[in-house]
Specification:
The complex is a heterodimer.
Chain A lengths: L4 H26 L15 H7 L7 E3 L7 H7 L4 H7 L32 H15 L5 E6 L6 H12 L4 E7 L19 H5 L4 E5 L3 H16 L5 E6 L21 H8 L3 H11 L5 H24 L8 H5 L3
Parallel strand pairs in A: 1-2, 2-3, 3-5, 4-5
Helix pairs in contact in A: 1-3, 1-10, 1-11, 2-3, 2-8, 4-11, 5-6
Chain B lengths: L2 E3 H15 L3 E5 L13 H5 L4 E3 L4 H13 L3 E8 L7 H8 L2 H4 L9 E6 L14 H5 L5 E3 L4 H13 L4 E6 L6 E3 L13 E4 L4 E4 L3 H12 L6 E5 L2 E3 L3 H11 L2 E8 L4 H13 L8 E5 L10 H4 L3 H12 L1
Parallel strand pairs in B: 2-3, 2-4, 4-5, 5-7, 6-7, 10-11, 10-13, 13-14
Antiparallel strand pairs in B: 1-8, 6-12, 9-11
Helix pairs in contact in B: 1-7, 3-4, 8-12
Classes of the chains: A alpha/beta, B alpha/beta.
């Protein structure tokens, strides 16, 4: 499918915004002004942005945990200031300051954030079942990593969504790395997408550093699902520039990456790649680039102000949150 | 009044709730055939869209229920045996139980986890558990344990209508138990205990099939010891008022729990009773629970699970 110039601009803008918020979270964690931990998405934003930018507002989605799902949430239309407020324990956070880092934005199809990797899959089956039944034309899009595909829940999900022909798209963001070891330590196959074949659904591999390629692969799969033709899987081969989580070593006890190797990877940063391509085609101008950077910086600043000025959640929130009326 | 057995009482509850609310559906392994006859044939009335037969994939089954509940449906997830629920522990205990709380009350998970519990059939450790403590250790879940057909129907209907995740544990020894079940519509509110038998000497608190054993023990002691038997019917929420009122009257308590003794419900309830009405107690609280072993199979089962004779002995020990 051919994307319009506006759509391409949107992809680029969301990449820049996702990166700006990733930088903000990394900085605030280092400053002791972000609660919990943080798993940077730097270099791996394209699969989330490419997947979520053109989904419908009411489509269900589960983000990947890198960037704590911000590339996905930002692209889905969710204002990240509510996520920052959550991550700083504020009452204005998307979960009222109850979750530190789990996200929730029901009106945007985000029905909660899973902490145990792979627990998105059983819930994907349930949301997919509901989407198929309710006649609202919703699709469920679930992003996960190569490591998460190890879980038995992935296999149960793959089995059930195609058995029931549910409107689901599984997007594997394969950065080739587990916490401390290369992904190949856990996988006997090169492509996670090849697993889709065993469950009778299409599985394709795309360049996950190329946000346009991701969008061009995901959108037909989403439309296919929406038309009732069943689920599919996309594997976006992407990169991780930093360690698994801030403050822990990169790979350890296995094939440790040198600074030179990481510098080489950084040449495939999705933002400059997308920028160069769009500028080359005259879609993006130098002025656009500067404006987008400026707007992203302003958005970050406004989000920080919002979070910092919001009150800390109060203990009286605990009791009413436990049970529904 | 009309007589109905426990299995058919639950079946009727499911049918009535499915007729009442289109959002209700049953999902689980073998629900088309119905392993215990409860859902047998329901597919003819409600279709495979609402009697959803699944692969053997407990996490996926639980997730189907939880995800659909998040999206506004009212699933009854049939785990067959409660022991199989352990396979979906993440889904039950970290997702269903905690999802609303964790997300600041922004989402609800109105799912029923429907499962057979309890021993007595020599099915050993993986088909005999009654995991009450596990459930009670997860604030966010509710827990209903019917001891008879009337309660089975009324509590199940309430469970389906509740906006929270409810573990509905029915006891497999009671499947054929007959009792009065009115034809007209009724539900039983959660958190309302029933005084099954009034007495003045000793209070026995029990749920599920232990209620029936406690009643039998009380009958054996008739004329000698006046035993009050209380069935809380739901352990979360728990009707402490009825229990405390009874304890204030009798001053002596036996708590019966078919689940493992260590760190169990009996210990918790015993603590709460002494904490609240210490001055009313005339003797230390006694408990009769499953021994601190896995549930053995074969003839050894009865050495692990609480027996009527033990309940009787505990009551007698109180007044001797």
């Amino acid at each position: 499918m051919a994307l319009t110039n506006d759509q391409l601009m949107k992809l680029y803008t969301n990449l820049v915004r996702a990166r700006a918020f990733d930088r903000l979270f990394v900085r605030r964690l280092a400053e002791g002004r972000l609660l919990g931990f943080y798993h940077s998405s730097e270099g791996g934003e394209a699969p989330g942005v490419g997947t979520c930018t053109f989904l419908r507002k009411e489509d269900f989605f589960f983000p990947h945990h890198r960037g704590h799902g911000m590339p996905h949430m930002i692209s889905k239309g969710i204002d990240p200031k509510y996520y920052l407020a959550e991550h700083t324990g504020k009452s204005t956070g998307m979960c009222g300051g109850m979750s530190t880092f789990h996200a929730c934005a029901v009106e945007y199809g985000l029905y909660g954030g899973a902490g145990t990797l792979g627990s998105c899959f059983p819930l994907t089956v349930g949301l997919g079942w509901a989407a198929k039944r309710n006649g609202r034309g919703q699709v469920v899009v679930t992003n996960f990593g190569d490591g998460t595909s190890n879980r038995g829940t992935f296999h149960e999900c793959a089995l059930m969504i195609n058995n029931w022909k549910l409107p689901v798209v599984l997007v594997c963001e394969n950065n080739g790395l587990g916490m401390f070891v290369p992904a190949k330590f856990a996988h006997p196959v090169e492509d996670i997408a090849s697993l889709a074949q065993g469950y009778g659904m299409p599985g394709v591999v795309v360049d996950g550093q190329d946000v346009v390629a991701v969008a061009e692969a995901v959108m037909p799969a989403v439309e296919r699902a929406r038309e009732g033709k069943g689920p599919s899987m996309i594997e976006a081969k992407c990169l991780r520039f930093c360690s698994h989580a801030m403050g822990i070593p990169d790979l350890a006890g296995s094939e440790i990456r040198t600074q030179e190797e990481i510098a080489e990877l950084r040449k495939r940063d999705p933002i400059p790649l997308c920028r160069a391509r769009l500028m080359e085609h005259g879609i993006l101008t130098r002025e656009d680039v500067e404006r987008i950077d400026r707007e992203a910086a302003a958005e970050v600043e406004a989000a920080e102000r919002f979070a910092d000025e919001s009150p800390v959640t109060v203990p009286s929130c605990l009791e009413p949150a436990l049970y529904a009326e | 009044m009309r007589q109905l057995n426990y299995a058919n009482a639950m079946r009727e509850a499911l049918m009535e709730e499915m007729n009442r609310d289109e959002r209700v559906f049953v999902v689980g392994e073998s629900v088309l055939g119905g392993s215990f006859g409860i859902t047998t044939g329901l597919v003819q009335q409600f279709g495979p869209e609402r009697i959803v037969d699944t692969p053997i994939a407990e996490a996926g089954i639980a997730g189907t229920g939880i995800g659909a509940a998040l999206a506004g449906y009212r699933p009854v997830v049939d785990f067959m045996f409660a022991d199989f629920m352990y396979i979906a522990a993440d889904e039950v205990f970290l997702k269903a139980a905690q999802w609303r709380f964790l997300h600041g009350g922004k989402v609800n998970v109105p799912v029923v986890f429907f499962a057979a519990v309890g021993g007595g059939m020599m099915l050993a450790n993986e088909h005999s558990r009654i995991p009450c403590t596990l459930v009670l250790h997860s604030p966010g879940l509710k827990l209903a344990l019917p001891s008879n057909p009337y309660d089975a129907k009324g509590l199940l209907k309430t469970a389906v209508r509740d906006n929270n995740p409810v573990c509905f544990f029915w006891h497999k020894l009671l499947l054929g138990m007959k009792g009065e079940v009115p034809e007209e519509e009724y539900t039983i509110p959660f958190g309302v205990a029933e005084v099954k038998r009034e007495g003045t000497d000793v209070t026995v608190v029990a749920v599920s099939n232990m209620v029936n054993l406690a009643l039998a023990a009380a009958r054996e002691l008739e004329g000698k010891i006046s035993v009050e038997v209380i069935d809380p019917r739901t352990l979360e929420p728990l009707d402490m008022d009825t229990i405390l009122k009874s304890v204030e009257k009798t001053g002596r308590v036996v708590i019966v729990d078919e689940d493992t003794e260590r760190c169990g419900f009996a210990a918790e309830l015993g603590f709460q009773i002494q904490n609240k009405v210490f001055d009313s107690l005339d003797a230390p609280i006694r408990r009769v629970c499953a021994a601190n072993y896995p549930i053995a199979g074969g003839y050894m089962e009865k050495c692990v699970l609480p027996q009527q004779s033990q309940i009787k002995a505990a009551i007698e020990a109180h007044v001797s």
